[in-house]
Amino acid sequence: MLKTYTYRSLQESDIQRLITRNTDPSRSIQQSVMAIMDEVRTNGDNALRMYAEKFDGVQLTDLALGSSDIAALASTIGREQQRALEIAFANIHRFHETQLRKERTVETMPGVTCWREPRPIERVGLYIPGGSAVLPSTLLMLGVPARIAGCREIVICSPPQADGRINGYIAYCLQLLKIETIYLTGGAQAIAAMAYGTDTIPKVDKIFGPGNQYVTKAKSLAQSLTNVSIDMPAGPSEVLVIADGTANPAYVAADLLAQAEHGADSQAILVSTDQHLVDEVQTALAAQLTQLPRADVASKSIANSYALLCENLEEAMAFSNRYAPEHLIIETDTWEPLVRKVSNAGSVFIGHLTPESAGDYASGTNHTLPTSGYARSYSGVSVDAFVKKITFQHITAEGLRNIGPTVEVLAELEGLQAHKNAVSVRMG
Ligand SMILES: NC(=O)c1ccc[n+]([C@@H]2O[C@H](COP(=O)([O-])OP(=O)(O)OC[C@H]3O[C@@H](n4cnc5c(N)ncnc54)[C@H](O)[C@@H]3O)[C@@H](O)[C@H]2O)c1
Ligand SMILES: N[C@H](CO)Cc1c[nH]c[nH+]1
Ligand SMILES: [Zn+2]
Predict the structure, then answer these.
(1) How do beta strands 182-184 and 64-65 pair?
(2) What does residue 308 show for φ and ψ, rounded to 5 degrees?
(3) Is the pLDDT of residue 428 over 90?
(4) Which end of the chain is more exposed for a tag (fewer CB within 10 A), N or C?
(5) How far is the CA of 31 from the centre of ligand 3 (A)?
């Protein structure tokens, strides 16, 4: 069950240990991923086939499925599942379409006009996890903002399943998104393929998507070894629940287990002001675990997690801000003052009736979020991530008279005469 710590008895070194997760201290993941990426760079599609056999247990001839295969697979799913995917698609679309707001044009001095306009990133690669669980929801979370942004080429990679194909739910989402091809490759090799390009898989400008530690390391290496950029490190899922005596222990336990079932390296942290609640959550965890098909994975993750007892909710929030969770759930009757104090979190779920699963699937917010403390500096995926915001400016004769002398002085103080001349030659 959850190990329990008391915040006031922790030293700074203990806090550092408690907020650190999935950093690959032995560099073993980095080494494996480097080797995989080199292999893909050198041997392209043949390397992808070799890794499909090694990691996914399938022999592939074709690395891609086209629209007729996708249509056949999509037709196998039930009406209820279609409907749920359509509602999720619509809510995600509704939430994300507001993000492409036009910005104001600014006249910084009379005759000097500056503004910013978004332009889609032309070629984007979306990674859809499919190792221990296939996540069609992730395809919607990445595909919808890519479509809203207007990206010209959307490359999708996901690990092949045991039958050498994808499941029908992924296929249905591809149809909702009007995407006609999917590439059957997963893990670090998929990221390498999109970063370097192979005969079959196009090289992209930016790679998006969550994944396990291999995928996440490959994304960061791809960014440093090639000119591809990435959305953010979105690795093993995590949740931190702040709960006081008003929380329902069954709800808290369910929320912790919902992230714990993602993987043994996931973390589910309970931060509470109430010892009695912690005890009740432990009991509820034990009871609910026995009912879960993925109890094996979830119990390993719970063993890799902890509960922390704090004196008050301010202290609880201070710890949460240091931990910087991917998901923060606030299960207290009074939450407004706490919400104002959130400074580091990927996505926040407020009140007793807001399960994090709602955001994972269908409320509309994006579930591709920074993990391992990266919520201190990264935002989750949004339409912004699929565009570049380009600045523009225009200067009139009046503007040049206004701004010119300032630029000349600044160029001169930096010793850059040619910069000064570019102004002076126009001012006559
Ligand atoms: N942060 C987020 O936004 C977010 C969202 C959804 C899911 N997730 C996380 O994504 C992850 C999905 O992981 P997954 O494993 O189920 O699927 P995955 O698709 O990320 O990884 C599967 C692939 O990993 C590779 N792999 C497995 N073992 C390997 C090894 N020993 N060496 C090299 N490569 C290996 C294989 O190629 C396999 O196809 C989970 O950790 C989940 O918590 C995060
Ligand atoms: N909780 C995951 C993000 O960490 C997203 C997800 C997809 N499916 C279920 N959950
Ligand atoms: Zn989830």
Answers:
(1) antiparallel
(2) -130, 125
(3) no
(4) C
(5) 28
Structure tokens at 250: 């069954």
Protein residue closest via CA to atom 20 of ligand 1: 211
Residue 367: CB within 6 Å of ligand 2?
yes
Using one digit for the tens of pLDDT, what is the confidence trace for 220-245? 999 999 999 999 999 999 999 999 99
Annotated binding site for substrate: 237, 259, 262, 327, 360, 414, 419
Helix axes 67-74, 168-176, angle to 10 degrees: 120
d(CA 45, CA 415): 52
pLDDT digits (tens, 9 = 90+) for 21-53: 999 999 999 999 999 999 999 999 999 999 999
Q: List the residue whose alpha carbon is closest to atom 6 of ligand 2.
A: 360
Q: Are 166 and 65 in contact (CB under 8 A)?
A: yes
What is the average pLDDT across 250-275?
98
| pLDDT (mean) for 247-272 | 98
Residue 262, phi then psi, degrees to nearest 5: -65, -40
Is there a catalytic annotation at residue 326?
Answer: yes
Q: Is 266 in the pocket of ligand 2 (CB under 6 A)?
A: no
pLDDT of residue 259: 98
> Is the pLDDT assigned to residue 184 strictly greater than 90?
yes
The pLDDT value recorded for residue 260 is 98
Catalytic residue among 327, 331, 356, 367: 327
Residue 409 Cα to ligand 2 middle (Å): 54
- Catalytic site includes residue 367: no
Distance (Å) of CA 40 to CA 186, 233, 295: 12, 21, 35
Q: What pLDDT sits at residue 1?
A: 87
